[in-house]
Amino acid sequence: MPTGLTSVAGNPEAGAPDFDRLIHERVRLGIVSALAVNESLAFNELKDMLRTTDGNLSVHARKLEEAGYLHCTKSFEGRVPRTEFRLTRDGRRALEQYLDHMEALIQSVRDR
Questions:
Q1: Per residue in 61-97, is it b (16+ CB within 10 Å) or e — as a string?
Q2: At 91, is the secondary structure helix, strand, or coil?
Q3: What strands, in cross-sheet order, belong to the sheet with 80-87?
Q4: What residues contact 18, with CB distance under 8 A and at least 6 apart?
Q5: How far apart are CA 35 and CA 73, in angstroms?
Q6: CB–CB of 73/84 below 8 Å?
Q7: How many Å apart are CA 86 and CA 13, to the nearest integer?
Q8: What pLDDT, in 10s, does the model give residues 31-67?
Q9: Cα–Cα distance for residue pair 58/14, rounded to 1 Å
């Protein structure tokens, strides 16, 4: 008899939902979520919003950019470098699929 997450979404043969592990990490989920509700955000805006360090944000943003989930633009405002992020269509689609999986998981647990 299936127990716990093995019977999520009403199909015991299917096992646990296949989460997008790239988005599942806390900082990366925060980045794509913030960009889903903002057209774009500057590096420092995201850093403050997520309460993370420069290095941590850089590493996670780069992983999302390499996956095609983020678009990064670098420019200068006067002499100050500015990095701006936008969510790509693939990134928005990945977030929507992730949220669908989470909703199915939550509903499955609540229905018990």
A1: bebbeebebbbeeeeeeeeeeebbbebbeebeebbee
A2: helix
A3: 41-42, 80-87, 70-77
A4: 101
A5: 14
A6: yes
A7: 38
A8: 999 999 999 999 999 999 999 999 999 999 999 999 9
A9: 36
> Which residues fall within 8 angstroms of residue 79, CB to CB, at 6 or more apart?
none
Q: Report if pTM > 0.85.
A: no
pLDDT classification of 18: cutoffs 50, 70, 90: confident
Number of other CB atoms surrounding residue 40 within 10 Å: 12
pLDDT of residue 112 exceeding 90, the answer is no
90 Cα distance to chain centroid: 11
As a whole number of angstroms, the distance between CA 1 and CA 32 comes to 37
Which tokens go with 106? 């939550």
pLDDT tens digits for range 55-110 = 999 999 999 999 999 999 999 989 999 999 999 999 999 999 999 999 998 998 99
The values of phi and psi at residue 42, to 5°, are -80, 160
